[in-house]
Amino acid sequence: MSEPRSDAARRCVRCSADLSVGRFCTNCGAPTDATRKQPVLADHLEPIELGEVVVMSTGQPRQVPAMRWLARWRAQIVLNLLVAALLVAGGVGARMLWARIPVPTTPPVTITCWDGEQRLRDDCTRPTGEECLRHVFPSFRSGQECTDLLRKRPSSTKPLAAPSSRAIARAMWRCRVRSDGEPVVVTYRELTSVRDGLSYHDEAYGDGARESITAGDKSPVRYVWRDPRGAGRDQVALTSMFVAFPYDVTVKAQTVRIRDRALRTHVEVRPVTDIEIRP
């Protein structure tokens, strides 16, 4: 720093006029150097690094450009950081929300079908043939007292001697038993369809002879036809057929009492719920 000028060499910094001794210029009134405040320097200066800007601190806080920029944009920076954090959290939450939660799978449950095989419920087939008759009617046992009518008379397609042959039998066995010492004939059949069985028996027994046997929920499970007079024959007949399955059984005896008793004691029919599966 240059040495201060002498009083004689002083000139006004504003109008360059010679300064006399005094505090103000007599020409323009500007203050002289003596009236100006000189900066007070600290004994030592401490460097402060603000980014790439290095300033010298005198121990008193000063606001440099870098600090002014930081103070100006601090709120915006914090806001941007919060927004970014919220977006990241929202993306993670959305992926978790739409992610497929693995559902524990259980192995399929198999059941015992009517033929004794273990399968899925929908894979159990409808019973058919001689074996199916033994399953649907546990009282049926083929032997010396039972005859396969379709094998004995392969040209015959009628389950019973009747005026119509629209009901075709797939399997047909006639068994002879005794009830109270009286002869009784029991015929087990697998028909081609429930519709064929309905048409045949309605015609054979006459209109209005069909009755419905209901379950506990009042839904029909079997149809029954009764012939109280014997229709001009020496025997009276009764036929019971499933509503949903093409199986029927016919009992014929000399009297209604013997016929009904034989139906109760010599004929066993499996529940409709156990036709396709075994309990």
What is the oligomer described by this structure? single chain
Radius of gyration: 57 Å
Shape: rod-shaped
Q: Strand percentage, roughly?
A: 15-25%
pLDDT under 50 segments (min length 5)?
Answer: 1-8, 40-44, 50-57, 155-166
Give the rounded overall mean pLDDT: 75
**Which strand order does the major sheet show?**
5-6-7-11-10-9-8
Please give the alpha-carbon distance between the first and last residues.
116 Å
SSE order and pairing:
Blueprint: E1 46-50, E2 53-57, H1 65-98, E3 110-112, E4 118-120, H2 129-136, E5 146-148, H3 149-152, E6 169-179, E7 182-191, H4 194-205, E8 210-214, E9 220-226, E10 236-242, E11 247-253, H5 256-266
Antiparallel strand pairs: 1-2, 3-4, 5-6, 6-7, 7-11, 8-9, 9-10, 10-11
Question: What does it look like?
Answer:
Strand 10 and strand 11 form a beta hairpin. The chain has a domain at 125-274. The chain is rod-shaped. It is 25% helix and 24% strand. Strands 5-6-7-11-10-9-8 form a 7-stranded antiparallel sheet, sandwiched between helices. By secondary structure, the chain is of the alpha+beta class.
